[in-house]
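User: Please predict the structure of the protein below. I'd like the answer in structure-token form so I can feed it into my own downstream comparison script.

Assistant: Understood. Taking the following sequence of 271 residues as input:
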Amino acid sequence: MISRYGESIFLGYGKCHHYRRRCRIRAPCCNEIFDCRHCHNEVKNSINVESSHRHQLPRHQVRQVICSLCNTEQEVRQFCINCGVCMGKYFCDICKFYDDDVSKKQYHCNGCGICRTGGADQYFHCFTCGCCYSIVLKNSHPCVERAMHHNCPVCFEYLFDSTDNVVVLPCGHTIHMDCLKEMQHHLQYACPLCSKSVMDMSKVWEQLDTEIASMPMPESYQNKRVWILCNDCGATSLVNFHFVAQKCLNCKSYNTRQTGGASPSSASVSS
């Protein structure tokens, strides 16, 4: 039985574990040959490389490719000029991108300026957010300018061209799906950027209602009142202090923070 690695070599795919293609690329930045831009970046942008020499491959500037079957170096094209082999069933002349695995449903987004996966009929480009989202979100996502043009707030990888799945939070901010799951595993349910809840927390708030009702405050604290700011709706409220949590008077969320104490004569306010 031939291993997947052996099968890749047999089919002319080379050693790249990112894509199935029959060519290598000459990096325009350092003039070295790599299987793909990710292979280049893993070597040239590694923490093992002196910081002044680290760099990423500019995909759109690739001009030369080398056929994996006949080793002919040539200008970027889909079919080898010498042996005629197809170097990638999916080919983008703009991104200089090749991949034989078309089950990914690759497509080029003119708005993003790069190739994406998942099928052009399943995604739309939001020009305010500056990226592609699932059509399910077309009329329901909150727009955040250049929403994916920043690093993941958990792992700090740049999100715009990340190969890992990215999700849009209810607040409009973006994060790796795996990073969000890791947050939830550690009972963290607030956006790392704006502190708004990342999911429907109504059931949790109901449990807190019950818990707080069953835990009356000591007599010395029963008249203590504090100002709070709600991370979910932005309202400020003057509420009774409790060791467990303080509830927003406007949206009933417990995702709040204490902003200050209050004098005994202060009246309850929600704004």
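That's the full token string. Helices lie at 4-10, 37-44, 177-185, 202-213.
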